[in-house]
Amino acid sequence: MTHPEFLDALVCPTTHTALTIADDGKSLTSQDGVTYEVGDTGIVNMLYPKELLPGDAHEQYLYDQAFLRYDRGVSWVFETLDHSDEAATRQFMISLMDLKPGMTALEVGAGTGKDSALILEKVKPGGTAVLSDLSPNMLKLAQDKLNTAEVNVHYFLGNGSYLPFKDDTFDAVFHFGGINTFSERKKAFDELTRVVRPGGKVVVGDESIAPWMRSQPTYQTLLKANPLFRAEVPMEDVPANVENFKLHYIFGNAFYVMEYTVRENAPEIDIDLPIPGKDFVDNWRLRAEKANDTMSESENE
Ligand SMILES: C[S@@+](CC[C@H](N)C(=O)[O-])C[C@H]1O[C@@H](n2cnc3c(N)ncnc32)[C@H](O)[C@@H]1O
């Protein structure tokens, strides 16, 4: 995907309708008159809403301040967690995307590009990586660092809960490290899934200490020191149209990473299929109705 093709692929982050590209290629305008600017280094500002919700604005501010310290700080975190091999764990997470040369991948919350570098390696030669973040400073650092030989790389500033792409645009999508604090987390899961083609992969991870470790003294210290470790794995946010869901604990069982394959539709449950070989009709619907009757009988007692 070339830069003009990338601009062409961008749509309105809420209605997913086409944008009009200015003749000089420096801005895109939606049907309702909202303009998105293309920066000097090619990073397109697709942030939505224009005035971020307070939690997202706060995260953007924090990362914009911390971008120069970020790489060192995050490596220290992983060193404290079971002396984890950060590079090997990041390789493991990216391997879950099942990327192949020539594929098209999206990363949301790419930060300074630590995982992006591995995504680029997987899709080259000839593939495309689209990298995005909420923080201009983090994403600019990623752009400065990454080696883009033999691969197409495009950047946009974006909110993971409002992705500016049509359905089924990507072979795989990746996010690591920020979703705990997204103001609209459920919407982000819907968006990450929507833009992946059926059969493609979604891989998402963040802090969450495994339940069986939470009573250990050193983990209790972590839980006190950083409330983000108390987050639960957001299983309830996973959309219905997925299969082969797997959950892994990584970095000393203090982070999770989930992977799933996108399906065209949600699984179908046939609640009316009769159980064979019975001399009366029996199926899930009748069993549920019977359970209801039994419940209301016991409530009336
Ligand atoms: C802990 S960093 C992780 C960066 C990178 N994925 C890594 O593993 O090093 C979290 C990143 O998520 C970004 N972020 C936070 N909220 C976001 C949102 N609503 N949409 C997109 N990115 C967001 C932050 O700007 C930050 O760069």
TrEMBL record:
> Which Pfam families does the entry link to?
Ubie_methyltran (PF01209)
Fetch the InterPro entries from UniProt: SAM-dependent_MTases_sf
- GO MF terms on file? methyltransferase activity
Protein name per Swiss-Prot or TrEMBL: Uncharacterized protein
Q: List the source organism.
A: Persicitalea jodogahamensis
